[in-house]
Amino acid sequence: MVAWKITAATGVALISISLITLFASLRFDFVGDHDGYLIAAAMLGTLISAVGLLGWAMKLEARQRFMIAALVVAYPWVAL
Question: Do 38 and 18 meet the contact criterion of CB atoms below 8 Å apart?
Answer without folding.
Answer: yes
